């Protein structure tokens, strides 16, 4: 805890004054560029990774960067997505998975969750990911399975996003682009799904968004 409180002191004495104009502007409202959905994992820092400042990203985090499909019960995820699109009018929506994701390890090994009923329940939103893995990638090594599971899960969650009315309406009027990313903790690289290539590529080589031609997006890769 001392580390956190010392950090607050350093923020107030060193950082805040230097960025006074920014914080003054932010006190009047926010106009974020993007909704950034990622895992709760402590090793993923969206603002550090994208070199953005407060006010740039509207961030939604949970275990496994999951998006429950839209339904009659509206949870925190549905509310954040609706608000980001319909009120804040973000132009881009990113789902960013990451390497070494504990949630995805659990998706591949559900028995590890026997004593974690809440986590087990939450990860049912990755059930389609688990089924894609058992159907298509059963023969891969454990390490390769995890890597593919992380990538496939982001695509599955992109499909869940499309069940949200605010997302579909924004896509239909070309007000929104969807992006599937995976952050590599060990290298600092970010891979982005390029729907024309049908695979993840280094972000500099990726197209502008997976939603530009949604008819061609497939949730699973051919192997
Ligand atoms: Zn994770």
Strand content range: 15-25%
Distance between the termini: 48 Å
Q: Give the H and E element order.
A: HHEHEHEHHHHHEEE
Strand numbers in spatial order across the main sheet: 2-1-3-4-5-6
The small-molecule ligands in this entry are: zinc ion
Q: Any idea what the shape is?
A: globular
Number of helices: 9
Rg for CA atoms: 18 Å
Largest sheet: 6 strands, mixed
Residues in helices, as a percent range:
40-55%
The average pLDDT score comes to: 93
- Strands, total number: 6
Which structural class should the secondary elements be placed in?
alpha/beta
Low-confidence stretches: 212-223
Could you describe the 3D structure shown?
- It contains 9 helices and 6 strands; from the N terminus they run H-H-E-H-E-H-E-H-H-H-H-H-E-E-E.
- The chain has helices at residues 2-18, 20-26, 46-50, 76-87, 102-108, 117-122, 127-136, 142-161, 165-172, and strands at 34-39, 57-62, 92-98, 177-183, 190-194, 199-202.
- The chain has a 6-stranded mixed beta sheet, with helices on one face.
- Strand 5 and strand 6 (199-202) form a beta hairpin.
- The radius of gyration is 18 Å and the shape is globular.
- The protein starts with a helix and ends in a 21-residue tail after the last strand.
- Residues 212-223 have low confidence and may be disordered.
- Zinc ion (ZN) binds next to helix 5.
Q: Can you give me a brief rundown of this structure?
A:
The protein has helices at residues 2-18, 20-26, 46-50, 76-87, 102-108, 117-122, 127-136, 142-161, 165-172; strands at 34-39, 57-62, 92-98, 177-183, 190-194, 199-202.
């Amino acid at each position: 805890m001392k580390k956190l409180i010392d950090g607050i002191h350093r923020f107030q004495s060193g950082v805040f004054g230097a960025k006074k104009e920014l914080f003054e502007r932010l006190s009047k409202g926010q106009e974020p560029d993007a909704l950034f959905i990622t895992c709760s994992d402590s090793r993923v820092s969206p603002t550090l990774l994208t070199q953005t400042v407060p006010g740039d990203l509207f961030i939604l985090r949970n275990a496994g960067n999951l998006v429950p499909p839209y339904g009659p019960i509206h949870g925190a995820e549905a509310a954040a997505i609706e608000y980001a699109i319909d009120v804040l009018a973000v132009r881009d929506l990113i789902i960013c998975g990451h390497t070494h994701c504990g949630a995805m390890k659990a998706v591949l090994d559900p028995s590890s969750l026997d004593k974690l009923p809440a986590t087990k329940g939450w990860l049912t939103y990755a059930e389609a990911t688990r089924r894609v893995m058992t159907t298509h990638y059963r023969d891969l090594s454990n390490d390769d399975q995890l890597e593919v599971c992380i990538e496939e899960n982001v695509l599955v969650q992109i499909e869940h996003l499309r069940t949200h009315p605010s997302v579909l309406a924004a896509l239909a009027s070309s007000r929104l682009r969807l992006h599937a990313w995976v952050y590599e903790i060990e290298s600092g690289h970010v891979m982005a799904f390029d729907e024309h290539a049908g695979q993840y590529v280094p972000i500099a080589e990726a197209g502008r968004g997976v939603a530009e031609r949604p008819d061609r997006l497939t949730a699973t890769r051919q192997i």
